[in-house]
Amino acid sequence: MSNPVPPHRPDPRPPRRRDRHGRGMRGPLAPPQVPLAMSRADAFDDLVRDSVDRLERQWPQLAGVEFVVQEVPPAPAAEDGTTDGWIDGWADGPDSVPLGRYAAARDGRPDRIVVYRRPIELRAKTRDDRALLVHEVVVEQVAELLGLAPESIDPRYGQD
Prior knowledge:
Elements: H1 40-58, E1 66-70, H2 86-89, E2 100-103, E3 112-116, H3 117-123, H4 127-146, H5 150-153
Parallel strand pairs: 1-3
Antiparallel strand pairs: 2-3
């Protein structure tokens, strides 16, 4: 006896997204050219990139430096080696969360400057404040890398 129902074959097309009330498929809320379409992390990356580009024009030795953005700094270890006392682990107390750091080249890795996004965003009230603070952090870390004062890296450092 033969089976009159053919076997079920999966649909090769991708699953269809909601087409609510026959109005068509949903698209992006904003075109990719407008600032609304850019995430906060992408906007922050652009601020760091702009600051680095500005400094690389004056300091060509920065071409080999790796600039990285991380969300938050790692929790420092307590005196006993654990990370459970992380607030006490920062040198100047809980109000001194680092905004960036410099790591010297080692094991074939280039010099690295890390900028921490969340602590900077929490301290800056406006986009202009954020851009200024990002630039100051990058200048401070470059100054540490080159062994110079931040004012010699960027003469406008510290001025509002």
